[in-house]
# Entry
Amino acid sequence: RRDAAPFWDETHRRLPRPSRPAGDPLRSSEGCYQLYPGHIPTSPLQKALLAAGSALMALCDPYRHDMVAVLGETTGCLALPNLRDKMKHHPEGYRILQERPRIRLSTLDMSKLRGLPDGSLGREYVRFLEDNKVSPDTRMPPKFVDDEELAYVIQRYREVHDLMHTLLGMPTNMLGEVVVKWFEAVQTGLPMCVLGAAFGPVRLSARKLQVLATELVPWAIRSGRNASCILNVYYEQRWEQPVESLREEIGIFPPPAVRV
# Structure
């Protein structure tokens, strides 16, 4: 669907822990060493070229989610270690790094989630997926992150993105995606999120720009600054928790009463 997750929503595997000894890389059929399945080793110059090319393609066509994914991986060299360290120094985040849960249809009991009370995280998450016709299985696996643990961090970020929509009460239209990217930019520091927040509004109407500037961006920035790290929540163990309760626990302010 062209109107589902339209901009800078990194298109959508738990990254398996290697069975080999730690630090012992895999060797691909091309003779390159892989740090995890699917990894494509690249030099700093190659990363720079990939980042420039993917940024240009994403700006020209916001629906090129594959390019957005490449941009996120090739420009996250500073932000990803910072996010990993935040997880390591938080009890719940540390457990996530150790257990490496995945949010996919194969790991979700959709019938059980549908049967949860209205207002619970699980029920509202499923409602979001169904209303916007999106699937957690469309999240792309990382390729260009040159660290196996950091590759999981960016995978986790991608897989909780739809949960951010649920907690923030934002749809997957252009305006909703831009608002979520403002929140994620403040939260994660990922350049890809900053790019989406900065350039996403160029495609919005004058009326939506006014609502964005006066109501939604200030709220998203305040919530992003106030909230604890969104990667430190074990969402799979919070399905029964009310969304309002989880917002309050994380530090996300209630969404403005405006039509998005």
User: Anything to note?
Assistant: Strands lie at 26-27, 33-34. Residues 1-8, 10-23 have pLDDT under 50 and may be disordered. The chain has one domain: 26-250. Residues 211 and 258 are 8 Å apart (CA to CA).
